[in-house]
Amino acid sequence: MQLRYGFRLYPTPGQRVALARAFGCARVVFNDAVRAREDARAAGRPFPKIAELSRVLITQAKQTAERSWLGEVSAVVLQQSLRDAETAYRNFFASLEGQRKGPKLGAPRFKSRKDRRQSIRFTANARWSVTPGGRLHLPKIGEVRVKWSRVLPAVPSSVTVIKDAAGRYFASFVIDTDPAADLQRMPHTEASTGIDLGLAHFAALSDGTKIDSPRFLRRAEKKLKKAQRELSRKQKGSNNRERARLKVARAHAKVADARREFHHQLSTRLIRENQAVAVEDLAVKGLARTRLAKSVHDAGWSQFVGMLEYKAKRYGRTFVKVGRFEPTSQVCSACGHRSGPKPLHVREWTCTACGTVHDRDHNAAKNVKSAAGLAVTACGAPVGPEPVLAQRDEAGSHGSPPDARAA
Fold it and tell me: Which phi and psi (to 5°) does residue 62 adopt?
């Protein structure tokens, strides 16, 4: 299974200039590839292959006066930018033909130098490495200082350098995990649980446990409003406006980081303690169009469920999604009697058939577990990990610099 391990980078001023140059060159090559494809489509010609684009847009372009500066960055960065354009078109056509799950994708668009998030990728043949001193050596950039939060479990296959909207730099390593080692980290257990996600409490478990919602955005709302108000008063294009924009971006990044850390800690705990986990498949997009939109986005249910799913695959756990139309809040978990829908302000109710008094969230969590069949298969036969796409990031614990090397 592939995962991404992210670490904070602290480049020097000279290295920031070199990274900016690499970001710009990668963007230009991507835009040239999109332009070549669009010109071919307009002329009715077949799309040029990636080998032809590489020869024309990189090899030959370096020999011209207009594109000679492409030789100042690693050629691997430019090749990976071409591959990104190829992948974008492949996903676009797969979406048109209905072969790709999820929402419809649009055609690839030109990248702008004003984009707040920029990235470049180095594969193994780029000869990047982790130095004995714990720095990340990147070709034509130098040895960049890294804040290691944990040890890399294996030799990475690639590293992506990212600059986010808050001006922070990150290194994202792609790691192939060892399934046997992952299974040993999470020993088999007989427990299973159902999870009911909500707003009053972030989650209610079928055993009666309730997990409070941290409401990271709500708690930081006053600070965010002040920073946004200061930004709106700055003159467009001025240095003061850029500093105010960074202040807003860093405030939002702090909220997102805290929410992500909370999701990682909770999802890891639930996967460690339970062999099988069931959760309701919520219609987040629909809820995000209601008056509860801000609270729904603040909770981040989709991110949390995604973490549960990939961690279950990694550690051999059973993960089940219960259909969103399952009446988990209407059915008595004791006798199975369905008493109909209830307004959100009703937090406790009594079953008219058996007289059991239910807590709304606890009852829904028990019904989620029952609908998933976990009440019968509590032993939860382990599910072997399947190959999945590399995740964006993981929570980590503090550790020493890694001993892994990248050729």
Answer: -65, -25
Give the mean pLDDT of 203-221: 93
* pTM confidence score: 0.85
Output the six-digit token pair for 29: 């090559």
For the record, the structure tokens of 30 come out as 């991507």
In the predicted structure, residue 385 carries a pLDDT above the cut 80:
no
pLDDT grade for 384, boundaries at 50, 70 and 90:
very low
- Residue-level pLDDT at 375: 53
Rounded CA-CA distance 350/332 in Å is 9
Considering only the C-alpha atoms of the chain, give the largest distance between any 2 of them, rounded to a whole number of Å: 84
Q: What share of the chain is helix, strand, coil (3-state, %, to 5)?
A: 40, 20, 40
What is the predicted pLDDT for the residue at 383? Answer: 36
Whether the pLDDT of residue 250 is over 90: the answer is yes
Catalytic sites, residue numbers = 196, 280, 361
Give the strand order in the sheet containing 169-176: 118-123, 158-163, 169-176, 2-10, 142-147, 136-138, 129-130
* Nearest-angstrom CA–CA distance, 357 and 335: 12
Tokens (6 digits) for 329: 């809040």
List the one residue out of 139, 142, 144 whose CA is nearest residue 127: 139
Residue type, 281: D
How far apart CA 68 and CA 196 sit, in angstroms, is 58
One-letter amino acid at 62 equals K
Those residues whose C-beta lies under 8 Å from the C-beta of residue 157, and which sit 6 or more positions away, are: 123, 124, 174, 175, 176
What Cα–Cα distance (Å) separates residue 348 from each residue in 9, 107, 156, 285?
50, 50, 51, 27
| Contact status, residue 155 vs residue 406, Cβ threshold 8 Å | yes
With H, G, I as helix, E, B as strand and everything else as coil, classify residue 25. helix
* Mean confidence (pLDDT) of the chain: 89
